[in-house]
Write a structure and sequence with these properties.
The chain is an alpha/beta fold. It has 7 helices and 10 strands.
């Protein structure tokens, strides 16, 4: 895949040691192209979340290589990896993971400030909230939002980082089916508008079918791909 924005080769991730050692990923080869939508499907414990964390530079592999935009994480120091994460990668987690004492506006503004550096212009938090249909909730705390609203704020916060790669970990897992469908509709619309690459972990077959490519994981291994 010559146009891959992120790639793993032979990635192994182990946690713990001795008899308690767990191999979360076991020789994973995976790549995702620019602008592609890929679902990582598998049961709990299959390695989906660990693979997302590896792609985003949050977890260093025990073995193998990880590249984002052609740069190997193994060759970078902590600060360089942080810069890649802040400039290229954003996350939307299963729970919105918003800062509880910050309003919706402040949550998005915090991400915009973290992304901005030097003369780079910052994203407009209110415009991003407008984009996800929540400008009228800008002064609300997370506890004052519904689950779907909180996930939409989380999307606005992710977009404030102007990501090239958006990693979603069961983004509808805590939502009812109707709200989950609306959040997925919004993610797809935003991806079409902004052109970022999307990789999302899910255990739900119905969610996975909405993606261009499905990568099936089981016991830390890629066992199938469907395009």
């Amino acid at each position: 895949m010559s146009d891959a924005i992120a790639r793993c080769r032979g990635v192994v991730v182990e946690y713990g040691g001795g008899p308690a050692r767990v191999r979360a990923l076991d020789g994973v080869d995976f790549g995702v192209g620019r602008g592609e939508r890929v679902a990582l499907r598998g049961r709990s414990g299959s390695g989906k979340t660990t693979l997302l964390h590896v792609l985003g530079g949050l977890v260093a592999p025990t073995a193998g290589t990880v590249e984002v935009e052609g740069r190997s994480f193994a060759t970078l120091d902590d600060e360089a990896r942080r810069r890649i994460r802040s400039s290229s990668v954003a996350y939307v987690l299963q729970g919105s993971n918003l800062l509880p004492t910050f309003t919706a506006f402040e949550n998005v503004a915090f991400a915009a400030r973290a992304r901005g550096n030097g003369d780079a212009p910052q994203a407009d938090p209110l415009a991003l909230l407008q984009l996800v249909g929540l400008a009228n909730k800008a002064d609300h705390l997370p506890a004052e939002l519904s689950g779907g609203e909180a996930q939409r704020v989380a999307l606005a916060r992710a977009l404030a980082q102007r990501p090239k790669l958006l990693l979603c970990d069961e983004p509808t897992g805590q939502l009812d089916s109707d709200t989950g469908e609306r959040v997925l509709d919004l993610i797809e619309a935003l991806q079409r508008e902004f052109g970022f690459t999307l990789v999302s972990a899910t255990h739900a077959e119905g969610v996975a079918r909405r993606f261009e490519r499905i990568v099936e994981l089981e016991d830390g291994r890629v066992v199938a791909e469907v395009a």
